[in-house]
Design goal:
The chain is α+β, with helices and mostly antiparallel strands and about 775 residues long. It is a peripheral membrane protein.
Length: about 775
């Protein structure tokens, strides 16, 4: 059977001539049978030929594991032809996961001790390719001896093998420290490049090596200066640049040695300036050297003028016709914008021009850099440029551009009117791409700018009349019309053109929003509430509003149906309280500390408790009835008992007596949910001045590898409690332990009953929609006692 075996050339030809994959498999299976038979017969003369064919079969993707032991036999053979194929087979068929690779350690050690350069080169190549940590520890001394061999061929391969050993076993660094200093005197470029790489690996993994090699900085500077000023080796010149590979590697090593070290940085300054000014930028090799030079200048403690020169080099890169170089420049400037903002700011016009690049990767980088360059001095001009880009940018960039404009306007807005105009333009242009908190932020901004209420409601009404497809814009407009509809009908606003609006037109527009198929359930809720509030702002008959509200009392959307039923009840039973309940929203402070916010919440809860403590007032009784509209008739509603006005009770707080109770111990946190890296923790605060109020902060964190999106947390409590959910900080929980998402729950427990909490979580994770409903019964007793 062995006699009919094919030669390697014949096997390759037959495989290439196969018409189908089945024919190829048939040829390979037949030849593999011949190879197995030859291995069993133990033919030493043809073993290397059979293994060569098997390696070709392995390269085609077919199994060849049965040739591993034959590799060991060929490596142990004294013949060079056998060793060459054996070492090649070991590199292809063996790796650290198989114990067989340890069997060649002695063979490699013997071959490294021989004086034959070709055999030593084979052994070193194999060791640097598949050497495990155990092999590196056993053979480190042999490799260290070969670093100083006379033959440049062996020294070069020994240096590369030492690099592999340091990466596998960093504690071997002490063995290779002494030879490196001698190898820096080499004239051979290959050895010198390998030595620089070895020193770089040593410095990155050992603080002692970093301190040791800072002594050779002058020598490295001299090597690089020779490369820049003279033709160090003409055979290594690429596009007129003398060995750019060696220059780049030396610059990377200098960057590591000069980082946070004043003396080393001072030695490099003159050289770096020389490289930055003398390197030819007409070819890509020179651009690569300049790029590394810029990074080295920015990472070490260089002079201020040198840093400006580095930024100017990147600015010239932005004008290059090569898109790759422009991309590198934008990425590099983005890294430098925090440390050298003023220097990068000089190239702002060029960066803005890159926004118009047809290449998506370039325009994305230009967008990120443009947003980073926005400050209080240029916010008007930059925002105008970014808004122009937003109108024509690709859909995958609109979300980032819109969010960036809103954040920049929030930080650097010169006036409130400009801030409102900017957000309105973003909502009009790309409303469906803005962040979830854009609606809440704009309503809060408009509510806090009392002098701009008339201006805002007119602008929003005009925008809504033109387009009702942008849902965030529709929500803000509906809210604003509901709050300030009376100002819209007055027709007098100095800051806008005269606009005469009739009541019927406003109601018709909101009805159009309610009936539109593009309106989300939340948008319809805004519109329905706006109609209800207009019932107290308009002077005409409310029959049209009542008819619209009654229609949605049978809506399929539960939230909208509940809202409509409550509004209908308000019309029928509590019409005399409607104006007071639907009055304008109070001003909400922005961005205050959490402690101040909780104090305000505590005061509000205390006022509510005081109201509940006086049952003789009919207004308070009716207000409590209103809180239980869906639970039954008002006469059956159970109200919390009045507070006990004892000397040790709430009367002390009301009278502000000096005898204050001792501070309560902190309530321990509680983890209530964990699934695939998503965790939900509850933290509790009970304000001392209002013991019946419990503030629960829900914190969601994500340690998995994928973002949790569309996250919604809903809560429910027994009827004897009163629950209010605040808006969450967002609906996305970033992966890898990113910024957590938080939401505040306010629970009023006047009866101090044991607290039970039911939570429902809905979110998307790794492309799957998840819904979890669970009850929390193990809350600490400190939350209610």
């Amino acid at each position: 059977m062995v006699a009919t075996s094919l030669k390697l050339r014949e096997l390759i030809q037959e495989i290439r001539e196969a018409k189908t994959q089945a024919q190829e498999r048939e040829v390979i299976q037949k030849e593999c049978a011949h190879i197995r038979a030859s291995f069993r017969d133990g033919d030493p003369l043809h073993r290397h030929c059979q293994l060569a064919k098997l390696l070709y079969v392995h390269m085609l993707g077919y199994p060849a594991h049965f040739g591993q032991m034959e590799c060991l036999k060929l490596i142990a053979s004294p013949r060079f032809t056998d060793k060459r194929v054996g070492y090649l087979g070991a590199m292809l068929l063996l790796d650290e996961r198989q114990d067989a690779h340890l069997l060649i350690t002695n063979s490699i050690k013997n071959d490294l001790s021989q004086g034959i350069q070709a055999v030593q080169g084979l052994a070193l190549c194999t060791l640097s390719t598949m050497g495990s940590a155990e092999m590196c520890r056993d053979l480190a001394n042999e490799v260290e001896k070969l670093l100083l061999q006379p033959s440049p061929y062996v020294r070069k391969k020994a240096v590369l093998t030492a690099v592999h050993m340091i990466r596998k076993v960093p504690e071997l660094s002490n063995i290779f420290l002494p030879p490196c200093a001698q190898l820096l005197h080499e004239r051979h470029h290959g050895i010198l490049l390998g030595t620089i790489t070895l020193i770089t690996e040593l410095c990155e993994r050992s603080p002692a090596a970093l301190k040791h090699f800072r002594k050779v900085v002058p020598q490295l500077v001299q090597i690089l200066r020779t490369l820049v000023t003279t033709t160090y080796s003409t055979e290594h010149s690429i596009s007129g640049v003398s060995d750019p590979f060696l220059q780049v590697q030396i610059l990377r090593l200098l960057r590591i040695l000069g980082r946070n070290h004043e003396e080393s940085s001072e030695i490099m300054n003159d050289l770096l300036a020389q490289v930055a000014t003398n390197t030819d930028t007409s070819r890509n090799a020179g651009n690569a050297v300049l790029f590394e030079t810029v990074f080295t200048i920015m990472d070490i403690r260089s002079a201020a003028g040198l840093r400006v020169l580095a930024v100017n080099i990147l600015g010239r890169f932005l004008l290059n016709s090569d898109r790759n170089i422009r991309y590198v420049a934008l990425t590099s400037l983005l890294r430098l914008v925090q440390s050298d903002h003023s220097a990068v700011q000089r190239h702002r016009p060029t960066v803005v021009e890159c926004l118009r690049e047809p290449d998506a990767s370039l325009s994305r980088r230009a967008l990120e850099l443009s947003l980073a360059l926005v400050n209080s001095a240029n916010v008007r001009a930059m925002t105008q440029e970014l808004q122009g880009f937003l109108e024509s940018c690709p859909p995958d960039l609109r979300a980032d551009c819109a969010s960036g404009i809103l954040l920049a306007a929030d930080r650097f807005a010169p006036t409130k009117r400009w801030h409102i105009d900017t957000i309105l333009r973003v909502l009009t242009t790309a409303g469906t791409y803005v962040r979830d908190d854009a609606v809440a932020n704009l309503t809060q901004l408009i509510g806090g700018a009392q002098e701009l209420h008339a201006y805002s409601v007119r602008r929003l009404y005009s925008a809504l009349a033109e387009d009702i497809s942008q849902q965030p814009l529709v929500q803000v407009a509906a809210w604003c019309i509901g709050e300030y509809g009376d100002l819209l009908l007055e027709g007098s606003c100095e800051e806008t053109e005269p606009l005469q609006v009739e009541e019927e037109e406003v109601l018709a527009l909101l009805e159009r929003v309610l009936q539109s198929h593009m309106s989300l359930p939340a948008t319809r809720g805004y519109a329905l509430t706006a109609l209800m509030k207009l019932s107290t702002r308009l002077h005409g008959d409310n029959n049209r509003i009542r008819q619209v509200v009654s229609i949605y009392g049978s809506c399929q959307d539960v939230e909208l149906q509940q809202r409509a039923v409550e509004y209908n009840t308000l019309f029928r039973k509590y019409d005399h309280m409607r104006a007071a309940i639907l009055e304008k929203m109070p001003l909400v402070e922005r961005g205050g500390p959490q402690g101040d916010e909780e104090a305000k919440e505590s005061k509000a809860a205390a006022r509510l408790l005081e109201t509940a403590a006086v049952p003789t007032e009919p207004q308070a009784s009716k207000l409590l009835d209103l809180l239980d509209l869906l639970d039954g008739p008002s006469g059956d509603a159970q109200h919390p008992p009045p507070l006990d006005p004892t000397p040790g009770g709430a009367l002390i707080h009301l009278l502000d007596l000096p005898c204050a109770p001792p501070p309560a111990a902190p309530i321990p946190n509680l983890r209530v949910f964990e699934r695939k890296g998503l965790q939900l923790n509850l933290s509790f605060v009970r304000p001392p001045e209002t013991p019946a109020l419990l503030l629960i902060t829900v914190t969601a964190t994500n340690d998995s590898g994928g973002d949790v999106t569309h996250f919604i947390c809903q809560a429910a409590v027994p009827k004897s409690f009163q629950l209010q959910l605040q808006a969450p900080s967002g609906d996305t929980v970033p992966a890898q332990g990113g910024l957590p998402m938080t939401q505040l729950l306010r629970i009023l427990n006047p009866n101090k009953a044991p607290l039970r909490l039911k939570l429902r979580l809905t979110y998307n994770h790794f492309g799957q929609s998840v819904q979890e409903i669970f009850e929390v019964n193990n809350l600490p007793v400190e939350t209610w006692q």
